[in-house]
Amino acid sequence: MIPVVALVGRPNVGKSTLFNRLTRTRDALVADFPGLTRDRKYGRAFLSGYEFIVVDTGGIDGSEEGIETKMAEQSLAAIEEADVVLFITDARAGMTSADLALAQHLRSREKTTFVVANKVDGIDGDSACAEFWSLGLGNVYQMAAAQGRGVTTMIEHSLAPY
Ligand code: GDP
Ligand code: MG
Fold first, then answer.
1. For residue range 26-45, what is the model confidence (pLDDT) as tens digits?
2. Total Cβ atoms within 10 A of residue 124
3. Which residues form the EngA-type G domain (predicted)?
4. Cα–Cα distance measured from residue 101 to residue 122, given in angstroms and rounded to the nearest whole number
């Protein structure tokens, strides 16, 4: 079975940017507006000898109403169907209550989860990412999806069992 890797996290953290890089397409809508990817989107990825299905989601921020509720529902569905969850956060924006809520959900589901702090380009990644260790989900991977920095290392570690 090809492993399924879900990209979850708040809107605007860079999930679609990472999806496009992994699948080498421009299919997932990348926007300056939070929450534009409204449905789950699937792509096939090959990296460092691993083949996997990657799932992009609209995002989840913990206070959903209306269309946001739908996005949260499909994020939760993506988590359920995933073998590996990449929990994407924004190193520039810092940790939010939504990040804490999502971390609690992932711990309760006992999903194999990797915390990824995106947008470390041009900032001090180590200090920006320190707080994400408190999510209690282990190592925090630093990434700049827009430049492709940190992507290969993070995928190699998260897919090593496969
Ligand atoms: P999504 O809502 O989580 O899918 O986020 P998007 O992929 O649509 O990206 C949201 C915004 O963050 C866009 O303006 C991207 O260009 C920007 N972005 C994504 N990755 C990076 C990165 O590595 N560094 C910086 N500085 N910006 C990024
Ligand atoms: Mg998106």
1. 665 555 545 544 567 888 99
2. 10
3. 3-162
4. 28
Q: How far is the CA of 57 from the centre of ligand 1 (A)?
A: 14
| Between 57 and 93, the higher pLDDT residue | 93
- Contact residues of ligand 1, CB 6 A cut-off: 11-17, 30-32, 34, 37, 59, 118-119, 121, 144-146
One-letter amino acid of 97: S
Going by alpha carbons, the residue nearest to atom 22 of ligand 1 is 119
Specify the range with the lowest mean pLDDT, choosing from 8-22, 34-48, 114-128: 34-48
Determine how β-strand 84-90 pairs with β-strand 113-118.
parallel
Q: List the chain domain ranges.
A: 4-156
Closest residue by Cα to atom 6, ligand 1, is 14
- Give me the architecture of the 4-156 domain, per CATH: 3-Layer(aba) Sandwich (3.40)
